[in-house]
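Q: Could you predict the 3D structure of Multidrug-efflux transporter?
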Amino acid sequence: MGAFGHMRAILTLGLPLVGSNLAAAGLGVTDTIMMGWYGVPELAAVVLGTNYLFFFFLFGTGFANAIIGRVSMALGGNDETQARRDTRMALWLSVLTGLVSIPCMWHSAAVLQALGQAPETARLAQDYLRIAGLGIVPMLVVAVLRSYLSAFERTQIVLWVTLSAVGLNIVCNWLLIFGEMGFPEMGVRGAALSSVLVQTVSMLVLMVYAHRARGLSHVALWQRFWRPDWSAFGAVARMGIPIGLTILAEASMFQMAALMMGWLGTIELAANGIVMETSVLAFMLHMGLANAATVRAGRAYGAGAPEHLRRGAITVICMSLVIVAVTVTAFLGIPEKIVSLFLKPGGDSAQILLLASGLLALAGLFQLFDAMQVLAMGLLRGLQDTRVPMWIALASYWLVGIPTGYVLAFHVGLQSHGVWLGLAAGLATASSLLMYRFWVVRGGGRRPMA
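A: Sure. Here are the predicted C-alpha coordinates for Multidrug-efflux transporter:
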Protein backbone atom coordinates (compact mmCIF):
# COMPACT_ATOMS: atom_id res chain seq x y z
CA MET A 1 0.00 0.00 0.00
CA GLY A 2 1.35 3.42 -1.00
CA ALA A 3 1.29 6.69 0.92
CA PHE A 4 -2.11 7.70 -0.46
CA GLY A 5 -3.55 4.31 0.41
CA HIS A 6 -2.29 4.65 3.97
CA MET A 7 -3.62 8.19 4.17
CA ARG A 8 -7.06 7.12 2.94
CA ALA A 9 -7.17 4.22 5.41
CA ILE A 10 -6.01 6.42 8.32
CA LEU A 11 -8.55 9.12 7.45
CA THR A 12 -11.38 6.60 7.14
CA LEU A 13 -10.56 5.22 10.56
CA GLY A 14 -9.11 8.32 12.17
CA LEU A 15 -11.52 11.12 11.21
CA PRO A 16 -14.42 9.70 13.23
CA LEU A 17 -11.98 9.12 16.12
CA VAL A 18 -10.73 12.71 15.83
CA GLY A 19 -14.34 13.88 15.81
CA SER A 20 -15.29 11.73 18.79
CA ASN A 21 -12.22 12.85 20.74
CA LEU A 22 -13.05 16.48 19.98
CA ALA A 23 -16.62 15.86 21.05
CA ALA A 24 -15.43 14.17 24.27
CA ALA A 25 -13.22 17.17 24.98
CA GLY A 26 -16.23 19.33 24.12
CA LEU A 27 -17.99 17.94 27.18
CA GLY A 28 -15.39 19.61 29.37
CA VAL A 29 -15.32 22.73 27.22
CA THR A 30 -19.08 23.22 27.48
CA ASP A 31 -18.88 22.83 31.25
CA THR A 32 -16.07 25.41 31.37
CA ILE A 33 -17.87 27.89 29.11
CA MET A 34 -21.20 27.60 30.90
CA MET A 35 -19.64 27.79 34.37
CA GLY A 36 -17.71 30.85 33.16
CA TRP A 37 -21.04 32.43 32.34
CA TYR A 38 -22.33 31.48 35.80
CA GLY A 39 -19.45 32.88 37.88
CA VAL A 40 -15.66 33.00 38.28
CA PRO A 41 -15.49 31.20 41.70
CA GLU A 42 -17.68 28.41 40.32
CA LEU A 43 -15.55 28.22 37.17
CA ALA A 44 -12.38 27.88 39.26
CA ALA A 45 -14.02 25.14 41.39
CA VAL A 46 -15.18 23.11 38.37
CA VAL A 47 -11.75 23.44 36.73
CA LEU A 48 -10.13 22.19 39.93
CA GLY A 49 -12.69 19.42 40.43
CA THR A 50 -12.46 18.25 36.83
CA ASN A 51 -8.68 18.04 37.04
CA TYR A 52 -8.97 16.02 40.26
CA LEU A 53 -11.56 13.63 38.77
CA PHE A 54 -9.56 13.12 35.61
CA PHE A 55 -6.51 12.20 37.66
CA PHE A 56 -8.33 8.95 38.53
CA PHE A 57 -10.18 8.58 35.25
CA LEU A 58 -7.07 8.81 33.08
CA PHE A 59 -5.31 6.09 35.04
CA GLY A 60 -8.36 3.87 34.48
CA THR A 61 -8.24 4.50 30.74
CA GLY A 62 -4.99 2.53 30.64
CA PHE A 63 -7.11 -0.61 30.27
CA ALA A 64 -9.14 0.97 27.47
CA ASN A 65 -5.96 1.99 25.65
CA ALA A 66 -4.55 -1.50 26.10
CA ILE A 67 -7.64 -2.89 24.39
CA ILE A 68 -7.07 -0.88 21.22
CA GLY A 69 -3.72 -2.57 20.66
CA ARG A 70 -4.63 -6.03 21.98
CA VAL A 71 -7.92 -6.34 20.11
CA SER A 72 -6.38 -4.94 16.91
CA MET A 73 -3.53 -7.46 17.10
CA ALA A 74 -5.99 -10.30 17.81
CA LEU A 75 -8.10 -9.30 14.80
CA GLY A 76 -4.95 -9.06 12.67
CA GLY A 77 -4.42 -12.73 13.58
CA ASN A 78 -8.14 -13.57 13.00
CA ASP A 79 -8.72 -14.39 16.69
CA GLU A 80 -12.07 -12.86 17.71
CA THR A 81 -12.25 -15.09 20.79
CA GLN A 82 -9.15 -13.46 22.24
CA ALA A 83 -10.58 -10.04 21.39
CA ARG A 84 -13.71 -10.85 23.41
CA ARG A 85 -11.75 -12.23 26.36
CA ASP A 86 -9.48 -9.19 26.57
CA THR A 87 -12.35 -6.71 26.30
CA ARG A 88 -14.38 -8.39 29.04
CA MET A 89 -11.51 -8.31 31.48
CA ALA A 90 -10.72 -4.70 30.57
CA LEU A 91 -14.29 -3.90 31.56
CA TRP A 92 -13.81 -5.74 34.86
CA LEU A 93 -10.62 -3.82 35.59
CA SER A 94 -12.20 -0.49 34.65
CA VAL A 95 -15.24 -0.98 36.88
CA LEU A 96 -13.01 -1.99 39.81
CA THR A 97 -10.86 1.11 39.29
CA GLY A 98 -13.92 3.34 39.23
CA LEU A 99 -15.39 1.90 42.41
CA VAL A 100 -12.11 2.31 44.29
CA SER A 101 -11.90 5.95 43.14
CA ILE A 102 -15.32 7.11 44.37
CA PRO A 103 -14.39 7.54 48.08
CA CYS A 104 -11.54 9.83 47.02
CA MET A 105 -14.12 12.16 45.45
CA TRP A 106 -16.23 12.30 48.61
CA HIS A 107 -13.37 13.57 50.81
CA SER A 108 -11.65 15.72 48.17
CA ALA A 109 -11.85 19.09 49.97
CA ALA A 110 -9.31 18.09 52.62
CA VAL A 111 -6.94 16.80 49.93
CA LEU A 112 -7.28 19.95 47.83
CA GLN A 113 -6.70 22.23 50.84
CA ALA A 114 -3.65 20.18 51.81
CA LEU A 115 -2.37 20.83 48.29
CA GLY A 116 -2.62 24.57 48.85
CA GLN A 117 -6.03 25.43 47.37
CA ALA A 118 -8.23 28.14 48.88
CA PRO A 119 -10.80 26.66 51.33
CA GLU A 120 -13.84 28.07 49.50
CA THR A 121 -12.63 26.85 46.10
CA ALA A 122 -11.85 23.41 47.59
CA ARG A 123 -15.32 23.22 49.19
CA LEU A 124 -17.07 24.10 45.92
CA ALA A 125 -14.89 21.57 44.07
CA GLN A 126 -15.92 18.89 46.58
CA ASP A 127 -19.60 19.76 46.06
CA TYR A 128 -18.99 19.12 42.36
CA LEU A 129 -17.01 15.91 42.88
CA ARG A 130 -19.44 14.26 45.29
CA ILE A 131 -21.89 14.06 42.39
CA ALA A 132 -19.59 13.98 39.35
CA GLY A 133 -17.44 11.24 40.92
CA LEU A 134 -20.35 8.80 40.62
CA GLY A 135 -19.96 9.04 36.87
CA ILE A 136 -16.44 7.62 36.80
CA VAL A 137 -17.66 4.02 36.37
CA PRO A 138 -19.80 4.74 33.28
CA MET A 139 -16.99 6.98 31.97
CA LEU A 140 -14.48 4.13 32.15
CA VAL A 141 -16.92 1.62 30.64
CA VAL A 142 -17.51 4.04 27.76
CA ALA A 143 -13.74 4.34 27.26
CA VAL A 144 -13.34 0.54 26.95
CA LEU A 145 -16.29 0.21 24.57
CA ARG A 146 -14.95 3.07 22.43
CA SER A 147 -11.62 1.23 22.15
CA TYR A 148 -13.31 -2.11 21.41
CA LEU A 149 -15.45 -0.63 18.65
CA SER A 150 -12.50 1.34 17.25
CA ALA A 151 -10.41 -1.83 16.98
CA PHE A 152 -13.28 -3.33 14.95
CA GLU A 153 -13.17 -0.10 12.90
CA ARG A 154 -16.71 0.84 14.02
CA THR A 155 -15.71 4.45 14.59
CA GLN A 156 -18.85 6.05 13.17
CA ILE A 157 -21.02 4.95 16.08
CA VAL A 158 -18.39 6.21 18.52
CA LEU A 159 -18.53 9.62 16.82
CA TRP A 160 -22.32 9.90 16.79
CA VAL A 161 -22.76 8.81 20.39
CA THR A 162 -20.14 11.30 21.57
CA LEU A 163 -21.62 14.15 19.53
CA SER A 164 -25.06 13.37 20.93
CA ALA A 165 -23.55 13.41 24.43
CA VAL A 166 -22.26 16.95 23.88
CA GLY A 167 -25.71 18.14 22.82
CA LEU A 168 -27.36 16.43 25.78
CA ASN A 169 -24.75 17.93 28.13
CA ILE A 170 -25.47 21.46 26.89
CA VAL A 171 -29.21 21.02 27.45
CA CYS A 172 -28.77 19.45 30.89
CA ASN A 173 -26.26 22.14 31.92
CA TRP A 174 -28.66 24.88 30.85
CA LEU A 175 -31.48 23.34 32.83
CA LEU A 176 -29.55 22.38 35.97
CA ILE A 177 -26.80 25.01 36.31
CA PHE A 178 -29.02 28.02 35.69
CA GLY A 179 -32.37 26.60 36.82
CA GLU A 180 -34.26 27.06 33.56
CA MET A 181 -37.78 25.78 32.72
CA GLY A 182 -38.71 25.18 36.34
CA PHE A 183 -35.61 23.18 37.29
CA PRO A 184 -33.76 24.23 40.48
CA GLU A 185 -30.68 26.43 40.07
CA MET A 186 -27.89 24.06 41.15
CA GLY A 187 -24.67 25.77 39.99
CA VAL A 188 -21.68 23.44 40.26
CA ARG A 189 -23.91 20.59 41.44
CA GLY A 190 -25.99 20.98 38.28
CA ALA A 191 -22.88 20.67 36.09
CA ALA A 192 -21.92 17.52 38.00
CA LEU A 193 -25.36 15.92 37.73
CA SER A 194 -25.46 16.70 34.03
CA SER A 195 -22.12 14.93 33.51
CA VAL A 196 -23.32 11.79 35.34
CA LEU A 197 -26.53 11.63 33.30
CA VAL A 198 -24.70 12.07 30.00
CA GLN A 199 -22.06 9.42 30.76
CA THR A 200 -24.69 6.91 31.88
CA VAL A 201 -26.76 7.36 28.72
CA SER A 202 -23.64 7.04 26.54
CA MET A 203 -22.65 3.82 28.32
CA LEU A 204 -26.06 2.23 27.82
CA VAL A 205 -26.19 3.12 24.11
CA LEU A 206 -22.73 1.67 23.42
CA MET A 207 -23.49 -1.47 25.43
CA VAL A 208 -26.61 -2.14 23.35
CA TYR A 209 -24.75 -1.45 20.09
CA ALA A 210 -21.86 -3.78 20.99
CA HIS A 211 -24.40 -6.50 21.78
CA ARG A 212 -26.75 -6.18 18.80
CA ALA A 213 -24.89 -4.57 15.87
CA ARG A 214 -24.52 -6.58 12.69
CA GLY A 215 -21.01 -8.01 12.47
CA LEU A 216 -20.52 -7.73 16.23
CA SER A 217 -23.38 -9.69 17.78
CA HIS A 218 -21.70 -13.04 17.02
CA VAL A 219 -18.74 -12.01 19.21
CA ALA A 220 -21.16 -12.28 22.19
CA LEU A 221 -19.33 -9.73 24.32
CA TRP A 222 -21.83 -9.87 27.22
CA GLN A 223 -22.45 -13.64 27.24
CA ARG A 224 -21.46 -15.04 30.68
CA PHE A 225 -19.84 -11.69 31.41
CA TRP A 226 -19.73 -12.49 35.13
CA ARG A 227 -17.30 -15.38 34.65
CA PRO A 228 -13.67 -14.49 35.40
CA ASP A 229 -10.95 -15.13 32.82
CA TRP A 230 -7.80 -14.80 34.90
CA SER A 231 -5.39 -15.35 32.02
CA ALA A 232 -6.86 -12.45 30.03
CA PHE A 233 -7.29 -10.43 33.23
CA GLY A 234 -3.57 -10.68 33.95
CA ALA A 235 -2.55 -9.94 30.37
CA VAL A 236 -4.70 -6.82 30.15
CA ALA A 237 -3.56 -5.67 33.59
CA ARG A 238 0.12 -6.12 32.70
CA MET A 239 -0.32 -3.96 29.62
CA GLY A 240 -2.95 -1.58 30.94
CA ILE A 241 -1.32 -0.60 34.24
CA PRO A 242 1.86 0.75 32.56
CA ILE A 243 -0.32 2.62 30.06
CA GLY A 244 -2.41 4.01 32.91
CA LEU A 245 0.70 5.13 34.77
CA THR A 246 2.04 6.68 31.56
CA ILE A 247 -1.15 8.65 31.04
CA LEU A 248 -1.16 9.53 34.72
CA ALA A 249 2.40 10.83 34.50
CA GLU A 250 1.37 13.32 31.82
CA ALA A 251 -1.96 14.12 33.46
CA SER A 252 -0.31 14.67 36.82
CA MET A 253 2.06 17.16 35.24
CA PHE A 254 -0.92 19.18 34.01
CA GLN A 255 -2.69 18.61 37.33
CA MET A 256 0.35 19.94 39.16
CA ALA A 257 0.34 22.90 36.82
CA ALA A 258 -3.27 23.61 37.82
CA LEU A 259 -2.32 23.36 41.51
CA MET A 260 0.57 25.77 41.03
CA MET A 261 -1.81 28.14 39.27
CA GLY A 262 -4.10 27.85 42.29
CA TRP A 263 -1.18 28.88 44.51
CA LEU A 264 -0.79 31.99 42.37
CA GLY A 265 -4.50 32.93 42.66
CA THR A 266 -8.08 32.35 41.47
CA ILE A 267 -7.59 34.48 38.35
CA GLU A 268 -4.57 32.39 37.36
CA LEU A 269 -6.47 29.15 38.02
CA ALA A 270 -9.46 30.23 35.91
CA ALA A 271 -7.17 31.40 33.07
CA ASN A 272 -5.26 28.13 33.21
CA GLY A 273 -8.53 26.19 32.91
CA ILE A 274 -9.52 28.06 29.76
CA VAL A 275 -6.12 27.57 28.13
CA MET A 276 -6.04 23.92 29.16
CA GLU A 277 -9.47 23.23 27.65
CA THR A 278 -8.41 24.91 24.40
CA SER A 279 -5.14 22.98 24.29
CA VAL A 280 -7.03 19.75 24.92
CA LEU A 281 -9.18 20.41 21.84
CA ALA A 282 -6.03 20.66 19.71
CA PHE A 283 -4.55 17.61 21.44
CA MET A 284 -7.66 15.55 20.65
CA LEU A 285 -6.93 15.89 16.93
CA HIS A 286 -3.59 14.17 17.43
CA MET A 287 -5.09 11.68 19.90
CA GLY A 288 -7.57 10.58 17.24
CA LEU A 289 -4.72 10.01 14.78
CA ALA A 290 -2.75 8.20 17.51
CA ASN A 291 -5.70 5.87 18.17
CA ALA A 292 -5.96 5.15 14.46
CA ALA A 293 -2.19 4.53 14.38
CA THR A 294 -2.53 2.04 17.25
CA VAL A 295 -5.24 0.11 15.38
CA ARG A 296 -3.30 0.08 12.11
CA ALA A 297 0.01 -0.76 13.80
CA GLY A 298 -1.60 -3.51 15.88
CA ARG A 299 -3.21 -5.14 12.86
CA ALA A 300 0.03 -4.95 10.84
CA TYR A 301 2.03 -6.29 13.79
CA GLY A 302 -0.45 -9.14 14.30
CA ALA A 303 -0.32 -9.97 10.59
CA GLY A 304 3.50 -9.86 10.50
CA ALA A 305 3.79 -6.92 8.08
CA PRO A 306 6.48 -4.54 9.46
CA GLU A 307 7.01 -2.55 6.25
CA HIS A 308 3.28 -1.87 6.06
CA LEU A 309 3.47 -0.68 9.68
CA ARG A 310 6.45 1.58 8.98
CA ARG A 311 4.88 3.29 5.95
CA GLY A 312 1.68 3.87 7.89
CA ALA A 313 3.66 5.45 10.74
CA ILE A 314 5.38 7.91 8.39
CA THR A 315 2.03 8.85 6.87
CA VAL A 316 0.27 9.51 10.17
CA ILE A 317 3.17 11.63 11.47
CA CYS A 318 3.06 13.82 8.33
CA MET A 319 -0.70 14.26 8.77
CA SER A 320 -0.19 15.32 12.37
CA LEU A 321 2.43 17.91 11.37
CA VAL A 322 -0.11 19.63 9.12
CA ILE A 323 -2.50 19.94 12.08
CA VAL A 324 0.32 21.33 14.23
CA ALA A 325 0.95 24.10 11.70
CA VAL A 326 -2.72 25.13 11.72
CA THR A 327 -3.15 25.13 15.51
CA VAL A 328 0.10 26.99 16.18
CA THR A 329 -0.99 29.68 13.71
CA ALA A 330 -4.33 30.06 15.51
CA PHE A 331 -2.87 30.08 19.03
CA LEU A 332 -0.24 32.68 18.13
CA GLY A 333 -2.43 34.76 15.83
CA ILE A 334 -5.83 35.10 17.52
CA PRO A 335 -5.49 34.14 21.20
CA GLU A 336 -7.81 36.92 22.46
CA LYS A 337 -10.65 35.88 20.16
CA ILE A 338 -10.36 32.25 21.30
CA VAL A 339 -10.27 33.07 25.01
CA SER A 340 -13.19 35.52 24.79
CA LEU A 341 -15.48 32.62 23.84
CA PHE A 342 -15.19 31.37 27.43
CA LEU A 343 -16.03 34.61 29.21
CA LYS A 344 -18.85 37.08 29.65
CA PRO A 345 -18.10 40.80 30.16
CA GLY A 346 -17.76 42.18 33.68
CA GLY A 347 -16.15 41.18 36.95
CA ASP A 348 -12.69 39.67 36.61
CA SER A 349 -13.17 38.77 32.94
CA ALA A 350 -10.75 41.42 31.64
CA GLN A 351 -7.92 40.15 33.86
CA ILE A 352 -8.61 36.54 32.89
CA LEU A 353 -8.73 37.47 29.20
CA LEU A 354 -5.35 39.21 29.35
CA LEU A 355 -3.60 36.42 31.23
CA ALA A 356 -5.21 33.53 29.33
CA SER A 357 -4.40 35.12 25.95
CA GLY A 358 -0.70 35.24 26.83
CA LEU A 359 -0.74 31.66 28.09
CA LEU A 360 -2.53 30.45 24.96
CA ALA A 361 0.13 32.00 22.74
CA LEU A 362 2.73 30.25 24.89
CA ALA A 363 0.81 26.96 24.64
CA GLY A 364 1.22 27.17 20.88
CA LEU A 365 4.95 26.67 21.32
CA PHE A 366 4.64 23.06 22.53
CA GLN A 367 2.02 21.81 20.08
CA LEU A 368 4.68 19.94 18.08
CA PHE A 369 6.02 18.17 21.17
CA ASP A 370 2.53 17.24 22.39
CA ALA A 371 1.61 15.82 18.98
CA MET A 372 4.77 13.77 18.54
CA GLN A 373 4.71 12.22 22.03
CA VAL A 374 1.11 11.00 21.68
CA LEU A 375 1.74 9.60 18.19
CA ALA A 376 4.88 7.77 19.29
CA MET A 377 2.98 6.37 22.28
CA GLY A 378 0.15 5.20 20.02
CA LEU A 379 2.52 3.44 17.63
CA LEU A 380 4.38 1.73 20.47
CA ARG A 381 1.09 0.51 21.96
CA GLY A 382 0.30 -1.11 18.65
CA LEU A 383 3.53 -3.07 19.16
CA GLN A 384 2.45 -4.00 22.73
CA ASP A 385 5.38 -1.91 24.00
CA THR A 386 4.24 -0.14 27.19
CA ARG A 387 6.75 -0.59 30.04
CA VAL A 388 9.71 1.41 28.77
CA PRO A 389 7.41 4.20 27.48
CA MET A 390 5.98 4.36 31.02
CA TRP A 391 9.45 5.04 32.47
CA ILE A 392 10.18 7.59 29.75
CA ALA A 393 6.95 9.43 30.59
CA LEU A 394 7.58 9.37 34.34
CA ALA A 395 11.09 10.75 33.92
CA SER A 396 10.10 13.38 31.36
CA TYR A 397 7.14 14.78 33.24
CA TRP A 398 8.20 14.38 36.87
CA LEU A 399 11.97 14.90 36.63
CA VAL A 400 11.92 17.55 33.89
CA GLY A 401 8.48 19.13 33.39
CA ILE A 402 7.23 19.71 36.94
CA PRO A 403 10.55 20.82 38.52
CA THR A 404 11.27 23.16 35.58
CA GLY A 405 7.83 24.75 35.84
CA TYR A 406 8.16 25.22 39.61
CA VAL A 407 11.60 26.80 39.41
CA LEU A 408 10.65 29.13 36.56
CA ALA A 409 7.38 30.15 38.20
CA PHE A 410 8.41 30.67 41.82
CA HIS A 411 12.19 31.14 41.82
CA VAL A 412 12.90 32.83 38.49
CA GLY A 413 9.71 34.92 38.87
CA LEU A 414 7.96 34.03 35.60
CA GLN A 415 4.83 32.96 37.56
CA SER A 416 2.09 31.51 35.30
CA HIS A 417 4.27 31.72 32.18
CA GLY A 418 6.99 29.74 33.95
CA VAL A 419 4.51 26.95 34.73
CA TRP A 420 3.69 26.56 31.04
CA LEU A 421 7.34 26.68 29.98
CA GLY A 422 7.86 23.72 32.33
CA LEU A 423 5.07 21.84 30.57
CA ALA A 424 6.80 22.47 27.24
CA ALA A 425 10.12 21.15 28.60
CA GLY A 426 8.51 17.91 29.82
CA LEU A 427 6.68 17.30 26.55
CA ALA A 428 9.80 18.02 24.48
CA THR A 429 11.77 15.44 26.47
CA ALA A 430 9.06 12.80 26.18
CA SER A 431 8.50 13.27 22.45
CA SER A 432 12.23 13.00 21.66
CA LEU A 433 12.77 9.82 23.71
CA LEU A 434 9.57 8.08 22.56
CA MET A 435 10.26 8.76 18.88
CA TYR A 436 13.80 7.46 19.40
CA ARG A 437 12.41 4.26 20.90
CA PHE A 438 9.97 3.66 18.03
CA TRP A 439 12.28 4.47 15.12
CA VAL A 440 15.72 3.44 16.47
CA VAL A 441 15.22 0.87 19.24
CA ARG A 442 12.22 -0.84 17.64
CA GLY A 443 13.25 -0.02 14.07
CA GLY A 444 9.80 1.33 13.19
CA GLY A 445 8.23 -2.01 14.13
CA ARG A 446 10.85 -4.30 12.56
CA ARG A 447 12.63 -5.26 15.79
CA PRO A 448 11.31 -7.30 18.72
CA MET A 449 10.69 -5.90 22.19
CA ALA A 450 13.85 -4.57 23.85
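Q: Anything worth pointing out?
A: The chain has 16 helices and no strands.
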